[in-house]
């Protein structure tokens, strides 16, 4: 007999979803939601990209609804790896890249975690502190040992590069290192190109395996090549590596759950073997991925005029986020705050790690109807020209 009252306990609420629930329950017409991890326009409305609508028209009624292969839609995979590694990347020309379509970024990471458990036995994954909270769930459920390395320095609200290098210097050979390719979540703090180069050389020397989670290509700086620069530095240095791609943010395909897991291998034969084993993992998990999102991305990346229009649209989204950072910092200064807020514009991507305390976050919610996660992470997509002055005033009040 199944006895839920004794055998199954209520799972804890997801902290981000809890923020949204509190926001929705608030009756203040001026309430602000800074917890949502999805792009919003200056009216706080969700956005469907024009290129997505154009691609929908092109594929409508022209494709069947049959199962995709286990590895997904091959043209989509091919275009995805070119977007990540570069059109002329040597690893692609050599046929050394194993790639499968995945269930967005979360699915990519989960596939890799399971592959790691099976084929990198005993290896631990080093995860930056802090990181996207779901990373811990993903590797925990795959029963992969997790270790952390220093990443964020609260005193400077920037990168703890010395701590990072020291911790990875002490990592065991064969360990996997989880790296955010750009727009680190939740801090918005990325290494400089010079720091990426130094880190690459250390990891090559220590035989550490880089696994890049790239959820924001193009969305961080507005330039897809620039946002994948870290991966390309590692490739130039001769690393084999893994990469998780998501099209949730940069194409607004959140609900399509469309992503790609790729692994650069030592040779073509190894690439083929690795891809076959990733497919074996996927077969038991979900059998095969959905078709619609793959066709959309393939059409956008494979049609030159639509692809250029996408570059323009994703640049526009990135620039709005950058503009909101400048406006927020300017308004904080005008509010009379004596605190240092330069990190607001020095960080990059959707999220700003504000540096405020959990108690100050609680005060923002209680006294000002402004909602964010308790670690002080602001979703800059929730900041608009209509609410930025009120947000700055409230931040000044709770931090004074």
Helix content: 40-55%
- Rg (CA only): 21 Å
| First-residue to last-residue Cα separation | 58 Å
Number of alpha- plus pi-helical segments = 18
Overall outline? globular
Specify the CATH class of the largest domain: Alpha Beta
What is the CATH superfamily of the largest domain? Type I PLP-dependent aspartate aminotransferase-like (Major domain)
Widest sheet, order of strands: 2-10-9-8-7-3-4
- Known CATH architecture of the largest domain: 3-Layer(aba) Sandwich
How many distinct folded domains? 2
Percent strand: 5-15%
Total E-strand runs: 13
- CATH level-3 fold name of the largest domain: Aspartate Aminotransferase, domain 2
Structural class by secondary-structure content = alpha/beta
Largest sheet: 7 strands, mixed
Low-confidence stretches: none
Average pLDDT, rounded to a whole number, is 95
Cofactor: pyridoxal 5'-phosphate
Protein name: Aspartate aminotransferase
Catalytic activity: L-aspartate + 2-oxoglutarate = oxaloacetate + L-glutamate
InterPro entries: Aminotransferase_I/II_large, Asp_trans, NHTrfase_class1_PyrdxlP-BS, PyrdxlP-dep_Trfase, PyrdxlP-dep_Trfase_major, PyrdxlP-dep_Trfase_small
């Amino acid at each position: 007999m199944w006895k839920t009252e004794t055998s199954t306990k209520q799972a804890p609420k997801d902290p981000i979803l809890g923020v949204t629930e509190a926001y929705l329950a608030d009756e203040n017409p001026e309430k602000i939601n800074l917890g949502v991890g999805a792009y919003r326009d200056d009216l706080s409305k969700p956005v469907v990209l024009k290129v997505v609508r154009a691609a929908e028209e092109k594929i409508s009624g022209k494709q069947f609804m049959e199962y995709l292969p286990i590895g997904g839609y091959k043209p989509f995979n091919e275009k995805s790896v070119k977007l990540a590694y570069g059109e002329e990347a040597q690893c692609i020309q050599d046929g050394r890249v194993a790639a499968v379509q995945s269930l967005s970024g979360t699915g990519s990471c989960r596939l890799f975690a399971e592959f790691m458990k099976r084929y990198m036995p005993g290896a631990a994954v080093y995860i930056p502190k802090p990181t996207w909270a779901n990373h811990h769930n993903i590797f925990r459920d795959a029963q992969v040992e997790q270790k952390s390395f220093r990443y964020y320095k609260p005193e400077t609200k920037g990168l703890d590069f010395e701590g990072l290098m020291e911790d990875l210097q002490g990592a065991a050979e064969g360990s996997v290192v989880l790296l955010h390719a750009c727009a680190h979540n939740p801090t918005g703090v990325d290494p400089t190109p010079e720091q990426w180069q130094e880190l690459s050389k250390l990891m090559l020397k220590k035989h550490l395996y880089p696994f890049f989670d790239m959820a924001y290509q193009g969305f961080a700086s507005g330039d897809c090549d620039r946002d994948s620069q870290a991966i390309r530095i590692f490739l130039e240095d001769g690393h084999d590596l893994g990469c998780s791609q998501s099209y949730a943010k940069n194409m607004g395909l959140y609900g399509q759950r469309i992503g790609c897991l790729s692994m650069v291998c030592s040779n073509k034969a190894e690439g083929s073997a690795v891809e076959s084993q990733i497919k074996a993992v996927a077969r038991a998990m979900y059998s095969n991925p959905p078709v619609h999102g793959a066709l959309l991305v393939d059409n956008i990346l494979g049609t030159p005029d639509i692809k250029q229009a996408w570059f323009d649209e994703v640049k526009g989204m990135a620039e709005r986020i950058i503009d909101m950072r400048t406006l927020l910092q300017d308004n904080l200064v005008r509010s009379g705050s004596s605190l240092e807020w330069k990190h607001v514009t020095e960080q990059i991507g959707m999220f700003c790690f504000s540096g405020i305390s959990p108690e100050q976050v609680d005060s923002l919610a209680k006294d000002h109807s402004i909602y964010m996660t308790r670690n002080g992470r602001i979703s800059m997509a929730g900041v608009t020209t209509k609410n930025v002055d009120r947000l700055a005033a409230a931040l000044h009040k709770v931090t004074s």
